[in-house]
Amino acid sequence: xxxxxxxxxxxxxxxxxxxxxxxxxxxxxxxxxxxxxxxxxxxxxxxxxxxxxxxxxxxxxxxxxxxxxxxxxxxxxxxxxxxxxxxxxxxxxxxxxxxxxxxxxxxxxxxxxxxxxxxxxxxxxxxxxxxxxxxxxxxxxxxxxxxxxxxxxxxxxxxxxxxxxxxxxxxxxxxxxxxxxxxxxxxxxxxxxxxxxxxxxxxxxxxxxxxxxxxxxxxxxxxxxxxxxxxxxxxxxxxxxxxxxxxxxxxxxxxxxxxxxxxxxxxxxxxxxxxxxxxxxxxxxxxxxxxxxxxxxxxxxxxxxxxxxxxxxxxxxxxxxxxxxxxxxxxxxxxxxxxxxxxxxxx
Length: 347
Ligand SMILES: Nc1ncnc2c1ncn2[C@@H]1O[C@H](COP(=O)(O)OP(=O)(O)OP(=O)(O)O)[C@@H](O)[C@H]1O
Ligand SMILES: [Mg+2]
Prior knowledge:
The structure is a single chain. The protein is an alpha/beta fold. 48% of the residues lie in helices and 12% in strands. The chain contains 16 helices and nine strands. A six-stranded parallel β-sheet has the order 6-5-7-4-8-9, sandwiched between helices. The chain is globular. The two termini are 34 Å apart. The mean pLDDT is 91. Magnesium ion (MG) binds next to helix 4. Magnesium ion (MG) is lined by residues 77-78, 102, 104, 106, 210.
């Protein structure tokens, strides 16, 4: 046996770019993780070859789960996420699931329209039921009935599914927060979504999670299953103000659950080229990232302009192509290139 061919948990974590806790997690969760070659006092050691092979296979089969977060409301999170989901499906032929965790139900309405949403909401086929179940120890959530397959008003978007939200999530969010923590010891309030989505996550290439503008328990449920997150922001003082807090708190949360949740980057939205504030803050965000990429996430090159046609895209209005939906003038191409950039950092 050549000693150079052996690696411990720490080395594996380094090779994979994750925390040692994440590697320990893989070992307990994946029965096909290579068995240790030896158990030393300091911990198990593994043959490097099989570990590398396993990591490669894992990357290839992996579903990429991306959350969309900003503590500031109205910065264009839902609009950007729906556009990215539709482009992933239409242009890149990816299988995509959008999970709408926001009680405002914006992404849901954009993708299925208000009428269909009311129908589902009346029948309790929304995410609110899942969280109510966790609170009341009932079992009313029906994944098959709740998951909406082949959503979007755009004909060419054929592989996009949705887990719809409900206004009732507001009440649930409040109750989850006041839940005595002991009650959930085997049934954690941040693990509700994870347990429910596990059976279907691997059906998808990408899962996009639209989070409400806070870091409450519902958002943490989304982060719990995310590989990383993007931060859409208007480049102004108030919208970018909370970004350092997001980075810090998500990183702490990831550490607590033994996972890595990458800040993939900042998506500049509602950009107004003629605004000196927008120009200045965009430059500042880019400069910060260049100076210290460990503290400041990178800024995606493609920025979403402020445009009526983008605001109008929120309407559930049947069209045949995404180019039609975003009207012309290069807006479709911006979303397309932005999606490409996100795929690159997230894969
Ligand atoms: N690029 C854009 N140009 C013009 N209007 C936009 C653009 N992006 C979003 N909007 C509009 O701005 C409003 C807020 O957008 P959106 O709902 O996507 O933001 P959000 O960050 O998800 O909000 P919330 O925090 O409430 O969930 C909507 O009316 C939307 O149509
Ligand atoms: Mg939103």
